[in-house]
Amino acid sequence: MENTSSLLKVVDLSFTHLGQTQPTIQNVNLTLNPGELVVLAGGTGSGKSTLLNCLTGIAPEHTGGKLSGQVFCRGEEITSWSIRMRSQLMGILLQNVETQIFTDQVWEELVFGLENWNLPPGEIQDLAQSALTEFDLVQQRDWTIHQLSAGQKQRLLLACLLTRQPDMLLLDEPFAFLDTAGVQLLLELLKKRVAQGQAVLLIEHRLELLRESCDRIYKIESGQVSLLASPLPVPTQTRAEPPPHTSKKDKPVVLKTENLSWGGYPPFPDLQVMAGDIVLLKGENGCGKTTLLKLLSGLLKPSTGQLEILGRDVTRQSVVTISRLLGFVLQNPNHQLFAESVEAEVTQSRVEPEQAKRLLKALNLSHCIQKHPHALSQGQKRRLALGAVLVREPKICLLDEIMVGQDPASLGLMLEALKTFTKKGGVLIFTSHDPGIATVLQPQVLLLH
Ligand SMILES: Nc1ncnc2c1ncn2[C@@H]1O[C@H](COP(=O)(O)OP(=O)(O)OP(=O)(O)O)[C@@H](O)[C@H]1O
Ligand SMILES: Nc1ncnc2c1ncn2[C@@H]1O[C@H](COP(=O)(O)OP(=O)(O)OP(=O)(O)O)[C@@H](O)[C@H]1O
């Protein structure tokens, strides 16, 4: 038995992933008490998700690997709590929103968790209905899960977690896909829960978001955890040089849309994009940004309208034909990494090995070129998916929320690679809820409703 006043106490915890020789986290000590909001920060690939998995017992019970040290929950070792008891104590949000949804329909997903707690049917209905309202999902009540946008999926998962009242919430980047209103909503809810005595431990890179609300920030670096001294350093974002003043007439039109629509929704605003242009698709969760990117890539075929690339009408062309002109980095990197190693992921497009190496270095992936892509951290996977697209030198690059969860240094590397791409005349069309990115890239903005 340990001191029971801490909800969670971690003593000298180290963990080595299955198949690895070096530990990913080493001699970690931390505590989480009732009524505290604690942040875990650190570079991409530093071990944050690994640590969270150790706290919940997911690692090593479900992942394999070697753990030493102890995790105490209410004074008893986490391994002595049954899964049922653990899930009563802990509400866990994993980083990949798609791995945690069990049913195929929004309302079913909400009531599924509550039914597992044997609550009376009337109470389940009331709790699920108020969660829908709170997370602005009333219109989506009867939608299937695959109709939801990433932000809506994240809202749904948070709604499921917060309808229950676990003693602690362990959240891996819960703000990642939320729009501005969603971020504010979640912040307020978490503060309220903390005031009621619940404890929250969450992973987030944008410390400025939580500067005023959190009790402590632990920083993880090279596998070691330390308390971040306050005051917090303010991240400096360099502003881009204003774009050179070239007349639009001088530049060739690369991509053009007219009256493009999908699924009975009103048409999207028309686009006319020139070589070197950077366009940000902006709008709230579920307004159709990903849908528009899929239409531009040929992955979805429009109900009405026309898509022209380099002067050619490609509206009815196959996705294979369109993909020769265009690269698409998807919102979920797990959907587009297929090779057996990081190196093979970028060399499979038959590029010069030296060119591939240069790109991997520019994206800070040189140290893991022999690793399996699915053994990377989420942020590393996103940089790799970007590298695998850029190495083919497409004319157009579509990016769907790929900058989420990057630490400032990694984000800087991604933005540099993208600036190099557009300087050579490449067109960049991207989505992002992060206002800092727009400051750096200075894109044209297409607002969707
Ligand atoms: N204008 C629209 N055109 C097509 N589908 C739309 C539109 N508006 C909403 N939808 C519906 O919303 C769903 C999710 O939209 P989408 O994934 O494109 O949103 P998003 O803007 O990318 O959201 P997020 O910011 O959460 O990633 C689509 O599957 C579709 O059912
Ligand atoms: N299943 C695995 N097998 C081997 N190595 C792994 C595995 N999962 C993660 N790693 C490695 O452990 C390190 C830490 O990964 P982790 O996902 O914990 O990082 P993170 O700090 O959460 O990163 P991000 O902010 O990018 O999500 C990375 O170098 C990653 O390559």
Automatic annotation (TrEMBL):
Annotated ABC transporter domain residues: 8-247, 255-449
GO molecular function (one): ATP binding
Entry-linked InterPro entries: AAA+_ATPase, ABC_transporter-like_ATP-bd, ABC_transporter-like_CS, ABC_transpr_CbiO/EcfA_su, ECF_ABC_transporter_ATP-bd, P-loop_NTPase
Gene3D superfamilies documented for this protein: P-loop containing nucleotide triphosphate hydrolases (3.40.50.300)
Protein localization: Cell membrane
GO cellular component: ATP-binding cassette (ABC) transporter complex
Cross-referenced Pfam families: ABC_tran
Xref: SUPFAM superfamilies: P-loop containing nucleoside triphosphate hydrolases
Membrane topology: Peripheral membrane protein
Key words of the record: ATP-binding, Cell membrane, Hydrolase, Membrane, Nucleotide-binding, Translocase, Transport
EC number of the protein: 3.6.3.-
Protein family: Belongs to the ABC transporter superfamily.
Annotated protein name in UniProt: HMP/thiamine import ATP-binding proteinYkoD
Origin species: Acaryochloris thomasi RCC1774
